[in-house]
From TrEMBL:
CDD domains: PBP2_LTTR_aromatics_like. SUPFAM superfamilies: Periplasmic binding protein-like II, Winged helix' DNA-binding domain. This is LysR family transcriptional regulator. One of its GO terms (molecular function) is DNA binding. InterPro entries: LysR_HTH_N, LysR_subst-bd, WH-like_DNA-bd_sf, WH_DNA-bd_sf. PROSITE patterns: HTH_LYSR (PS50931). Pfam families: HTH_1, LysR_substrate. GO terms for cellular component: protein-DNA complex. It comes from Dulcicalothrix desertica PCC 7102. Residues 1-58 form the HTH lysR-type domain.
Amino acid sequence: MELRHLRYFVTLAEELHFGRAAERLHIAQPPLSQQIRQLEDELGFQLFHRTKRVVQLTEAGEAFLLEVQKIFKQLEQAVQTGRQTSRGEAGQLVIGFVSSTAYNVLPEILRKFRAEVPGVKLELHELTTDEQWRHLREGKIDIGFVRPPIEEPLFATETVYKELLIVALPEGHRLAKETSVSIKSLSNDDFILFPRTFSPGLHDAMISLCQQAGFYPNVTQEAIQMQTIVSLVAAQMGIAIVPSSLQHLQRTGVIYKPIEEFVTEVTINIIWRRNDTSPTVQKFLEIILSKTHS
C-alpha cells in the first residue's frame, strides 16, 4: 500500500464521484477505478458501494476514512515539525549558566529567544564555568554562559555582557556608610571567595584588584555560588568582591559599594562547540548575537 493509494481513496470519499475525483487528482478515471480496486483487494474489504449513478462509502469505508484522515493529519504535523526543526524553530536546547548571569544577561536573552522561537524547549542547568567546559565537551549541554578566558580550541565564544566589580560589605562594616570604597582600605579584612578552579578568569581579576592595591586578600571562607558568598557576607563572615549585577540580589544585611580605584571590568561569554551544526543552536546564536552586536 502506498501513500498515493490513500490519497486517491480520501479524494474519492470526499467527492463520491469518480469523474470529479479523477479531475482533482489530475488522472484519468479508469486508472483511479483500478487503484481503488487494488486498494480494496489489498485491504480485504470493500470501501465503496458502486452503481452506475451512485458511489457511496461502505460502513467499513467510513471507519477506514476516519483513521486515514488521522494519518494525514499526523503526516502534516510531521512535515511541519521537520521544517521547524530544520530552521531551528523546534526541538530542545540545553543551556548551562554561571549563577551570576541570572542577575544580568540571562533573563533578557531567554525572554527574547522564547518570544521569537516558542517551539523550542529550553532546559537550563546552573553550572560553574569549569563544569560547563566539561559538559559542553561531553555533549551534555549545547550552549554555555561562562566567565572567560576560554582557551579550548573546540569552543567558539562571543562576549555578551560586561560589568564592573564592586564590593559587598556586611551591614555593620566600618565602611558601610561610605559612598565608595578603596580596595586598599580592605587589606586587613577577611575575604570570601570561590576556589579558582571554578572560574579562573573571574578569580584572577579579583585577586589582581587586591594586588594592584598592594596586598593579597586574606581568604577565610570559600563558596562556589555567588548567592552563597553574599549570604556569608550577610552573616558577617567577611567581605567579598563581586560583579556589579549581584546588586540585583537583595539580601538583608548586605551593602554594595563601588570601588574607587583600579576599575576592573569583567565579562560573560557565550560558548558553543565550534563544529555544532544543530539548526536550533544556530538559531539561538543568530537571535542572541544579533541583539548583542546591534
